[in-house]
Amino acid sequence: QVQVVESGGGLVQAGESLRLSCAASGRAYSTYAMRWFRQAPGHARELLATIRWSGSWRYYADSVKGRFTISGDNAKNTAYLQMNNLKTEDTGVYYCNVHLRGPDREYWGQGTQVTVSS
Length: 118
Description:
4-stranded antiparallel β-sheet; 11 strands
């Protein structure tokens, strides 16, 4: 019913930048928020950033504050994660989560790999 597709991952060196995209399609008519998570090897999935469509409220985890920026295009139901000054510890699979209202439900993308080499 709802498809979530991430893109933009890849292999970069420390200090470089990447921009991830997350597009929600299908019955994604009532998007409330979109979130980016990261799962590093051997670690739990970690919430990195959130954007709410209403009022563009944003949240950032301390680990990415000042380096990552979440933005969105409401008309396209797409969120972006601009990642600057990447560090080796940013390596992991990045997942997009789409939160819909009426009723509340969430959908996940398949993830995109980000690898930061030293």
